[in-house]
């Protein structure tokens, strides 16, 4: 199984935004469950005080893709960690490259401050028009973890 330290589980949109806001650096990112679509992950990145959310979904062939800005060719990856690596580079159809991972195990309170213990792992999909969501830091509640077998299949 792939170990993703940036995966925070079913923390909900508001908590994800709070954690990114605590770090405070443009390019800080984390992965969480989607609040609204079961079976889909949300890749959340901080840019200019806003949290941009990109839904990650798995296709029928078992490859992962992110919903990015229109006009950017969709890319598919066998593992989520490969998708994250690709989005660390500029020009990938997201607001800012992924620069600073906010890990679940050692979640940053500030980018220079203390760290705390974190979470476990689960999965989360979206509609065709939900490639990008821009929200100021605030939001809703998360959803419950999916079963362990589904999680292992999604990440490994």
Note down, in words, how this protein is organized.
The protein is built from 3 helices and 8 strands. With 156 residues, the protein is α+β, with helices and mostly antiparallel strands. Strands 1, 2, 3, 4, 5 and 8 form a 6-stranded mixed β-sheet that branches. A two-stranded antiparallel ribbon has the order 6-7. Strand 3 and strand 4 form a beta hairpin. The protein starts with 12 loop residues before the first helix and ends with a helix.
Keywords:
single chain, 156 residues, alpha+beta, six-stranded mixed sheet, two-stranded antiparallel ribbon, 8 strands, 17% helix, globular, disordered C terminus
Question: Layout of helices and strands, plus pairs?
Answer:
Blueprint: H1 13-23, E1 28-33, E2 41-47, E3 50-58, E4 64-66, H2 80-86, E5 100-101, E6 107-108, E7 115-116, E8 133-135, H3 148-155
Parallel strand pairs: 1-5
Antiparallel strand pairs: 1-2, 2-3, 3-4, 3-8, 6-7
């Amino acid at each position: 199984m792939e170990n993703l330290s940036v995966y925070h589980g079913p923390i909900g949109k508001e908590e994800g935004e709070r954690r990114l806001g605590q770090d405070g650096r443009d390019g800080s990112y984390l992965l969480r469950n989607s609040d609204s679509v079961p079976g889909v992950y949300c890749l959340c990145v901080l840019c200019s005080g806003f949290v941009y959310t990109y839904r990650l979904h798995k296709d029928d062939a078992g490859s992962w893709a992110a919903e990015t800005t229109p006009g950017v060719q969709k890319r598919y990856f066998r593992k989520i960690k490969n998708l994250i690596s690709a989005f660390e580079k500029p020009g990938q159809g997201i607001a800012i490259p992924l620069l600073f991972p906010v890990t679940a195990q050692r979640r940053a309170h500030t980018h220079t401050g203390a760290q705390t213990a974190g979470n476990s792992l689960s999965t989360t999909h979206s509609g065709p028009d939900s490639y990008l969501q821009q929200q100021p830091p605030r939001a809703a509640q998360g959803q419950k973890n999916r079963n362990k077998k589904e999680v292992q299949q999604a990440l490994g």
